[in-house]
């Protein structure tokens, strides 16, 4: 973003009749920036932000229960059934603020090495051996971290 004093200088130099390229060279900004500042009249544009979306807490709690805590399904139901278009990241932020936990990630395609593969991998490097200890320990306990 160009500072207000530099914007004013660009606009004043333009009003004095200085060419865009010369303004750009003199003030060390791109010609595109000079053209945009001149088109805006040397003023900072007014940034208008859309109002924050308000979503009913009871609705979110009900959808959370119906979807079993799966936020992606909540997002789909909000759009399909309620007609509420909200970005997924906004929904997850709201749920975090409300203290609603997300279900743990559980990969379904995890493949563990066979006994022969494990022996060969452990012989490669002690770091690989430590990783295998961790991975196989989580396989036994049923948790994935």
Q: Layout of helices and strands, plus pairs?
A:
Blueprint: H1 4-15, H2 20-27, H3 31-39, H4 57-66, H5 71-80, H6 88-98, H7 115-124, H8 126-141
Number of helices: 8
- Topology order in helix (H) and strand (E) letters: HHHHHHHH
Please tally the β strands and state the result: 0
Whole-angstrom Rg = 29 Å
* Helix percent band: 55-70%
Task: Please characterize this protein's 3D structure.
This protein has 145 residues and is mostly helical. The protein has 3 domains: 4-39; 57-98, no CATH class; 107-145, no CATH class. 59% of the residues lie in helices and 0% in strands. Helix 1 (4-15) runs antiparallel to helix 2, helix 2 (20-27) crosses helix 3 (31-39) and helix 7 packs antiparallel against helix 8. The longest helix is centred in the C-terminal third of the chain and has 16 residues, at 126-141. The chain is flat, with a radius of gyration of 29 Å. It starts with a helix and ends with a helix.
Core attributes:
145 residues, mainly alpha, 3 domains, 8 helices, 59% helix, flat
Quick overview of this protein structure:
With 145 residues, the protein is mainly α. Helix content is 59%, strand content 0%. The chain has helices at 4-15, 20-27, 31-39, 57-66, 71-80, 88-98, 115-124, 126-141.
């Amino acid at each position: 973003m160009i500072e207000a004093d530099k914007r004013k200088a660009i606009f004043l130099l333009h009003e004095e009749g200085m060419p865009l390229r010369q303004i750009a060279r003199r003030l060390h900004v791109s010609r595109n920036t000079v053209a945009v500042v001149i088109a805006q009249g040397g003023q900072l544009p007014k940034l208008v932000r859309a109002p924050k979306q308000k979503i009913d807490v009871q609705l979110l709690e009900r959808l959370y229960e119906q979807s079993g805590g799966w936020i992606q399904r909540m997002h789909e139901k909000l759009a399909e059934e309620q007609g509420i278009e909200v970005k997924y990241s906004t929904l997850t932020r709201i749920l975090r603020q409300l203290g609603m936990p997300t279900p743990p990630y559980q990969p379904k395609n995890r493949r563990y090495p066979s006994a022969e593969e494990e022996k060969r991998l452990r012989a490669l490097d002690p770091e690989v051996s430590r990783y295998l200890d961790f991975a196989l320990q989580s396989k036994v306990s049923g948790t994935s971290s």
